Amino acid sequence: MAKRTKPGSSISAKPSAAKIKRASRDLQLKLKRIGKIASGAVGIIGARNRRAAQLGIVLEIARRHKDEPAWAAAIRKAYKAQGIRKRQGAGSWMRLVKLCIPGPAATNFRNAKLIAYASRNGWSGDELERRLIRYKGLPGLGRKYGWKKLVPKSPGDGVGR
């Protein structure tokens, strides 16, 4: 773990090139796993369950990004390689979700809000996945926790449908 100057501050230690290379390799493996889940090659049945598994991995990546300087550097490198720039009005979660799960902007926005909420509340990737499956996707989870902005207006517009 890197030392922090005070709780909630940004990462202060500069990682070595070897650690960044290892983190980049691990990040690529996780991104590849997300791609396999999306294509259905992993054996997870149902689109909703696949999206829940993907978001669980994204949350794991987000946690490592926040806690480990090498992962933060590896993710910055991946943003540059993919051409994902900071956009005005879009949070840092949106960039991470775009990197991990390319797709329509509205879905990415809802996924980014979900990842931010889960991270704030200390959920693990597995816990997020279980909750998404239990409450039948983002619309059900949104109703459970009162996220009016995240619950889609039409019934067919939810995460994993």
Q: How is this structure best described in words?
A:
By secondary structure, the chain is mostly helical. It has one domain. It is built from seven helices and no strands. The longest helix has 23 residues. It starts with 16 loop residues before the first helix and ends in a 16-residue tail after the last helix.
What descriptors fit this protein?
161 residues, mainly alpha, 63% helix, disordered C terminus
How are the secondary structure elements laid out?
Layout: H1 17-39, H2 47-67, H3 69-82, H4 92-100, H5 105-120, H6 125-134, H7 137-145
Helix pairs in contact: 1-2, 1-3, 2-3, 2-5, 2-6, 4-5, 6-7
Shape call: globular
* Tally of discrete structural domains: 1
First-residue to last-residue Cα separation? 38 Å
**H/E topology pattern:** HHHHHHH
Number of helical stretches of at least 4 residues: 7
| Unreliable runs | 1-9, 154-161
Q: Give me the Rg, rounded.
A: 16 Å
Sheet bearing the most strands, described? Answer: none
User: Percent helix among the residues?
Assistant: 55-70%
Beta-strand residue percentage: under 5%
In round numbers, the mean pLDDT is 80
Secondary-structure content class? mainly alpha
Number of strands: 0
Report a brief summary of the structure.
With 161 residues, the protein is mainly α. The protein contains seven helices and no strands. The termini are far apart.
